[in-house]
Amino acid sequence: MLTDSLCFLAVQKDALALQGVPESMKTKMLCLMAVQNDALALQYVPESMKTESLCLLAMQSFGGALQYVPNAIKTESVCLMAVQNYGTALQYVPETMKTKSLCLCAVLNKGCAVVYVPESINIYV
């Protein structure tokens, strides 16, 4: 039988075990622990529990997790943190938020991020 303590132990051992935890047993604390241990656990956090602060925490360790951030939470600070950490996260930034400075930051972090820079943005270093 699945218990709260068993789910806690599983996620403590492997953050991605959050995937197997029933939605009804996912608490804010459990989701926070999972994301602290592995940013990719964000994909298994219920949308209702995804906050800007939780998403920022994930972006600090792996910007590629931006793909699991709801558009409503993709703020300038969340997107900036993501591309500073992992330049190719630029592919997950909404087009309307791709500024020259954000794109430059992404490309300086990871040159191949240039493929995600809109043609309308000229980056000259």
Summarize the structure.
The protein has helices at 4-13, 28-37, 52-61, 76-85, 100-109. With 125 residues, the chain is mostly helical.
Write up what this structure looks like.
The chain is mainly alpha-helical and 125 residues long. The chain has helices at residues 4-13, 28-37, 52-61, 76-85, 100-109. Helix 3 packs parallel to helix 4 (76-85). The model has no long low-confidence stretch (mean pLDDT 95).
Primary descriptors:
single chain; 125 residues; mainly alpha; 5 helices; 40% helix; 0% strand; elongated
Helical segment tally? Answer: 5
- What pattern of helices and strands is seen along the backbone? HHHHH
Provide mean pLDDT, rounded: 95
User: Helix proportion of residues, in percent?
Assistant: 40-55%
Specify the biggest β-sheet.
none
Distance between the termini: 59 Å
* Weakly predicted, low-confidence segments: none
**Cα radius of gyration in angstroms:** 16 Å
Class from secondary-structure proportions: mainly alpha
Q: What characteristic shape results from the CA principal axes?
A: elongated
Counting DSSP E segments of at least 2 residues, the number of strands comes to 0
Assembly state (oligomeric):
single chain
How much strand content do the residues show?
under 5%
List the helices and strands and how they pair.
Layout: H1 4-13, H2 28-37, H3 52-61, H4 76-85, H5 100-109
